[in-house]
């Protein structure tokens, strides 16, 4: 009941994303029912029917991936203080999100069943005629357990993926290093502190060493590198000629950036933004997240294995669909694994060779969001390369695709693009606090827009040639066969 109330009270944008999940689930359910109908109409061709059912794995995976991305951006299932007070913790909110996803996918499955029965003529008495009529099993009874099993695949897989992905995670604790021990205080408090032996404070010179360490810390606070924090007027502490302890004076090698009356607000905002970005005001990855570049070698290895498998199986079997399907599956997995690492490297590339405020901000955002948007980018590259390879292999004989293959291709491509756009919305929501902090620091809105445009330009420049290269390599065995 709570899931239905949250669904009804959602905003139009959230409802639109859920309708996309319903449409994707309906398309996938219809393809599964068509595979069942082909098996009923052609009992002798069990291999072809099994291959049709195997090809439905790609739309099923794309639908589940889209449902997971939509569930992550749902604002109604986020932890809030009022919900915690009402007894809705992270576990129950995860259950509500899984129930909402299951309801959307179940609605799509019902629509698929209704369309399938309508085309069969069970509701109107007039079956549809055309190339897809052989997959409808017109005039044959449908086994109810098989229909229910196939229609329950999408809701069960989507809800299980949402429940597993949205489970609460704790930040990874730092392992204690040598010379550090656990500090015990009030009940339930824990932490790390420097280990002291018995009587260390009373030894000769211990107090002097502590005083020297404190004095060096105060002196470090007055150096020019530490005095470059942004002030509300957009100037720095070094520009005012004041040291860290409040006395006037100039440090050798330090330049005084005195604003002139004709200085614009943009220049002042950028001057305040660069030290803030260097000090960590820009969004960074969470401490508990895994490094984005860790999966790049694995992605490259899986991608190479997928291309090699596709070439080998296509040469041995004459370009059959089994070899193409297994090769493309590994290729898509490799691109999805390599996507976060490539996105992280794009951020590194933007910050190379004396970056300004715009490049620094764009690079740091890409590095922080590499794990989030890298995988959808890799999936889009895999879908684009598969579409290019299939189009180049068939050439002018586009009619050989058929309506069901066209539906499957459109469904996979649409889910991949919708997942990427939904992940972009999630990334924008995640960095809303960092954007507000940068605006409070004096960053002009033009700098933020320029950083967004730069991020949108560098990603296609890196992923576009990669997609084209993978597509050319994937199309070679298909062209020979």
Automatic annotation (TrEMBL):
<feature type="region of interest" description="Disordered">
    <location>
        <begin position="215"/>
        <end position="261"/>
    </location>
</feature>
<keyword id="KW-1133">Transmembrane helix</keyword>
<feature type="compositionally biased region" description="Low complexity">
    <location>
        <begin position="248"/>
        <end position="261"/>
    </location>
</feature>
<keyword id="KW-0812">Transmembrane</keyword>
<feature type="transmembrane region" description="Helical">
    <location>
        <begin position="407"/>
        <end position="425"/>
    </location>
</feature>
<protein>
    <submittedName>
        <fullName>Uncharacterized protein</fullName>
    </submittedName>
</protein>
<feature type="transmembrane region" description="Helical">
    <location>
        <begin position="92"/>
        <end position="119"/>
    </location>
</feature>
<feature type="transmembrane region" description="Helical">
    <location>
        <begin position="51"/>
        <end position="71"/>
    </location>
</feature>
<feature type="transmembrane region" description="Helical">
    <location>
        <begin position="377"/>
        <end position="395"/>
    </location>
</feature>
<feature type="compositionally biased region" description="Low complexity">
    <location>
        <begin position="224"/>
        <end position="242"/>
    </location>
</feature>
<feature type="transmembrane region" description="Helical">
    <location>
        <begin position="458"/>
        <end position="479"/>
    </location>
</feature>
<keyword id="KW-0472">Membrane</keyword>
């Amino acid at each position: 009941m709570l899931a239905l109330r949250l669904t009804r009270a959602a905003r139009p944008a959230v409802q639109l994303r859920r309708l996309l999940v319903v449409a994707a689930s309906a398309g996938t359910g219809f393809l599964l029912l068509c595979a069942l109908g082909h098996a009923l109409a052609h009992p002798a061709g069990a291999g072809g029917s099994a291959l049709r059912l195997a090809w439905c794995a790609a739309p099923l995976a794309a639908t589940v991936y889209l449902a997971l991305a939509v569930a992550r951006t749902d604002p109604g299932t986020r932890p809030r203080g009022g919900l915690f007070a009402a007894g809705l913790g992270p576990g129950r909110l995860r259950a509500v999100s899984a129930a909402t996803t299951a309801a959307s996918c179940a609605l799509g499955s019902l629509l698929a069943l209704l369309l399938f029965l309508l085309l069969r003529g069970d509701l109107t008495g007039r079956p549809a005629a055309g190339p897809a009529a052989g997959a409808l099993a017109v005039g044959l009874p449908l086994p109810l357990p098989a229909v229910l099993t196939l229609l329950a695949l999408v809701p069960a897989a989507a809800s299980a993926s949402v429940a597993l992905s949205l489970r609460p995670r704790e930040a990874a604790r730092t392992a204690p290093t040598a010379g550090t021990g656990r500090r015990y205080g009030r009940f339930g408090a824990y932490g790390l502190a420097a280990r002291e032996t018995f009587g260390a404070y009373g030894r000769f010179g211990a107090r002097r060493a502590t005083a020297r360490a404190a004095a060096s810390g105060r002196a470090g606070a007055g150096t020019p590198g530490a005095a470059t924090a942004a002030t509300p007027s957009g100037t720095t502490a070094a520009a005012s000629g004041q040291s860290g302890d409040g006395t006037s004076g100039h440090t050798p090698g330090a330049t005084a950036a005195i604003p002139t009356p004709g200085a614009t607000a943009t220049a002042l905002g950028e001057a305040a933004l660069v030290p803030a970005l260097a000090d960590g005001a820009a969004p960074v990855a969470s401490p508990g997240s895994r490094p984005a570049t860790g999966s790049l070698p694995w992605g490259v290895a899986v991608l190479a294995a997928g291309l090699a498998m596709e070439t080998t199986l296509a040469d041995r079997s004459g370009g059959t669909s089994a070899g193409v399907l297994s090769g493309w599956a590994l290729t898509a997995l490799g691109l999805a694994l390599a996507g976060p690492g490539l996105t992280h490297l794009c951020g590194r590339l933007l910050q190379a060779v004396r970056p300004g405020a715009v490049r620094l901000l764009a690079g740091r955002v890409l590095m922080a969001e590499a794990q989030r948007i890298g995988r959808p980018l890799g999936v889009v590259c895999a879908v684009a390369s598969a579409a290019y390879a299939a189009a180049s292999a068939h050439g002018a004989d586009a009619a050989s695709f058929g309506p069901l293959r066209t539906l499957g291709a459109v469904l996979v491509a649409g889910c991949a693009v919708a997942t990427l756009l939904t992940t972009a919305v999630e990334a924008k929501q995640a960095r809303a606090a960092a954007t507000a902090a940068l605006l409070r620091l004096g960053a002009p809105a033009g700098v933020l827009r320029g950083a967004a445009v730069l991020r949108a330009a560098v990603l296609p420049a890196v992923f576009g040639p990669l997609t084209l290269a993978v597509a050319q390599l994937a199309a070679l065995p298909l062209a020979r066969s």
